[in-house]
Amino acid sequence: IACVLSGLPESIIAAACARSGQSVLHVDSRNYYGGNWASFSFSGLLSWIKENQQKTDIGDECEDWRKLILENEDVISLSKKDRTIEHVEDFCFGDQDSAEDVEEAGALPKLPVFGASGAEGVAQESEKECPPMESALPEAASREPEKATGTEPASAMEGNDTEISSENEGSQSTALGESALELGKTEAAPSENSAQEPKKITYSQIVREGRRFNIDLVSKLLYSRGLLIDLLIKSNVSRYAEFKNATRILAFREGKVEQVPCSRADVFNSRQLTMVEKRMLMKFLTFCLDYEQHPDEYQDYENSTFAQFLRTQKLTPSLQHFILHSIAMVSENDCSTLEGLQATKKFLQCLGRYGNTPFLFPLYGQGEIPQCFCRMCAVFGGIYCLRHSVQCLVVDKESGRCKAIVDHFGQRISANYFIVEDSYLSESICKNVCYRQISRAVLITDQSVLNTDAEQQISILTVPPVDVGKPAVCVIELCSSTMTCMKDTYLVHLTCPSTKTAREDLEPVVQKLFNLNTEKETENEEQEKPRVLWAVYFNMRDSSGVDRNSYDGLPSNVYVCSGPDSALGNDCAVKQAETIFQEMFPTEEFCPPPPNPEDIIYDEDEIAAEESGFSNSPDTKPEPSTEESSSGGSTAVKKEDDEE
């Protein structure tokens, strides 16, 4: 198997193939894992911004590779220019006094108020001076000093895999283990004064503390009963990562941000709902859990939108708003009644598995997940090559199947199956493909959109459409305990389907929620809002809905994976990976769990050598360590991992 690029679907496929005994070569022209699923340190993100603003074509490093093509073979050239990212705009709203401080330390050019992309050099130097991160999580803290500096993204660096204890006691609902559950709980300490002004954060501080940031290109959460969590548990890949439970669901209504009660305890403890509203909400949510058993309640509204159906259910306007935008999280104009009921049921079914919300977030960012599957692939023999571009696919004229790839060194590498990310395909192959776009924004702010006594909050907020024809915007706010930002700051991700450029789509929402004023004196209303310190906007290609037949002249044994989609969860990537794997190997199990220690069969010569005391391998002992025993009997994986 030859995989080109290391995004989430490709990484899952590579891990599944390696686990089933296939030989896997995984190459990526980038110098980091994850592609558009990656996470970056602050300096790494600045370098990524500069790279995508310049957009230069890469020339052939080896001009003789065409000599490797035989007379009975054709060539499908691959693209050397990434066209998946457009309209990248970055802005610094920090005090310009800070730029002078950094200039003295690292010769940073004076930074204008708008356009922060000139700071890569000083960011790299400043991050080297950054002291080790102080963390309340000992497992996470122990790995921070291992992270590299410079333009490497956080998810690409060696040594940043984190084990999670996955104690399987016979129930899948507890398979992520007690340690994961404890991590999912809010590690919130009451603030001394929740009304006090936030600490002043300067741009130079952000640059110097850049290693503390792990900024995702794609913003997603994991449904606690979603396909990705089930796959992480089944394959035991969950032990390579740590997770934290999202702590609250927010709503934006009548110009204010407020917390949404979604669990039974939240509903009955809520002070913003009257007793009548609590009964209304609980009755409707109970109906949604088994709506299939009561078709007479909704069948008359199957051709209506979910919003229209809610208006008939004796719900107050505030409850309709909460259900539509914060629980179902669907579009007001486009979502049918059945789709809304399905989304509400999925939300409710995920409640209570690991906390009071349905969502988990991986510590150190979403970019950890592809790397976890890459690690599993490597443990079972997969070979990884970063900074290794592919020139072309070699196709046999008679059979029409792909035979090999030719890399930028002029090497010809043969394989039976080829996995290619959509961005690597040339314009001639994609000429009939119609792509959608995702609008993304990433903000660094000085306080939360909704301050409470508990400072360490992971929040998800859906902002209704600002104007007619505009999409709703999903906002995910991350605190420093997620290991994605420095202390006293918040990392805010905004995502929506594109109608225009990312800045045009998302800036109206940013202005409603945050203070963009760089002047010291602002109105009282603006002072109450969180202040944006730095921001970046960009558009990302969404190729998730493209049919395989849309690609022109693609060999039958070449499979195309899409980039990230605009949905909140990861179900699309997992479904795509499983579908491709089953097409290649219909009789093999998809990502089976690793063998238990007692199931390992050793070679007779190896056993004899060990018994006689002449064993050369200290890792052949079948007895698991204490750490391995606590991870649910994963000795086989651990042993091979050590050998790697």
TrEMBL record:
Residues 119-174, 591-644 are annotated as: Disordered. GO terms for molecular function: GDP-dissociation inhibitor activity; GTPase activator activity; transferase activity. Keywords: Cytoplasm, GTPase activation, Transferase. It comes from the Eukaryota. One of its GO terms (biological process) is vesicle-mediated transport. InterPro entries: FAD/NAD-bd_sf, GDP_dissociation_inhibitor, Rab_escort, RAE1_2_domI_C. The keyword Transferase applies. It is found in: Cytoplasm, Cytosol. Pfam families: RAE1_2_domI_C. Residues 438-566 form the RAE1/2 domain. Residues 600-609 have a biased composition (Acidic residues). Gene3D superfamilies: FAD/NAD(P)-binding domain, Guanine Nucleotide Dissociation Inhibitor, domain 1, Guanine Nucleotide Dissociation Inhibitor, domain 2. SUPFAM superfamilies: FAD-linked reductases, C-terminal domain (SSF54373), FAD/NAD(P)-binding domain (SSF51905). Its main location: cytoplasm. The keyword Lipid metabolism does not apply. One of its GO terms (cellular component) is Rab-protein geranylgeranyltransferase complex. Belongs to the Rab GDI family. This is RAE2 geranylgeranyltransferase. It comes from Cochlearius cochlearius (Boat-billed heron).
